[in-house]
Amino acid sequence: MATPIYKRIVLKLGGESLSGQQGFGIDPQRAEEVAAKVGHVQGLGVQVAIVIGAGNLWRGREGIERGMERATADYMGMVGTVMNSLALMDALERSGVITRVMSAVEMRAVAEPYIRRRAMRHLEKGRVVILGGGTGNPYFSTDTAAALRAMEIGADVVIKATKVDGVYESDPEKDPAARRFDRLTHIDALNRRLQVIDSTAISLCMDNNLPIVVLSLWREGALVDAVLGKAVGTTIAG
User: Fold this and answer.
1) 69: CB partners within 8 A, 6+ apart
2) How many CA atoms are closer than 13 Å to the CA of 115, on its beta-carbon side?
3) Whole-structure pTM value
4) Spatial distance between the Cα atoms of 71 and 95, rounded to a whole number of angstroms
5) CB contact at 8 A, 200 and 142
6) In 3-state terms, the chain is what percent helix, strand and coil (to 5)?
7) Which of 13, 55, 74, 92 qualifies as a FRET site for 28, CA 20 to 30 Å off?
8) Segment 154-200, tens digit of pLDDT
9) Nearest to 75 by CA among 15, 139, 17
């Protein structure tokens, strides 16, 4: 069996990964499919922490455009990430993967408060840890939360699993001829103003020399290939 090149990863998922064909809400079957992919990676001996967004439940941008206060919209999104975390935890545990949800926004009835050393201990014991609530502060995206948590818990890489198979020079849905990058430096990704990952998250990873791998969650074997060090998606590093 191939040996993973990463011991500990932070997997960044969009909330849409849990939605079905309708594009919103939580589809239990889709949650089970995501859980199976996570379980496969964990079965290789990789410690997995997950940060998930809430775009399937709430898009703060729409509220802000209607005059909602930005902080309120962001806090609503944080609550949404905890809902998604609980759904994914349920799917993982039903598949036999021991999971803990930790939240940066205190919700003791449903999730442990995020404490860095406790999160690391869960990982060391072989549990998947889902980190909800973003950073706990408005004005920061869940991409930034993933980068921050990766630094805090000593992860080897941030893997952003999306619906596209890497980083393109332009939107491949609008431009079929768009070129995909196999590799970029952090500064190149910032200078190109690529929309696939938040610039604050890229800057944080650049300052701490942490690689980012962007890949398709739904391409068969992509996630496993990434942790095994095979060429997949786009690597942002150096």
Assistant:
1) none
2) 8
3) 0.95
4) 36
5) no
6) 40, 20, 45
7) 74
8) 999 999 999 999 999 888 888 888 899 999 999 999 998 887 899 99
9) 139
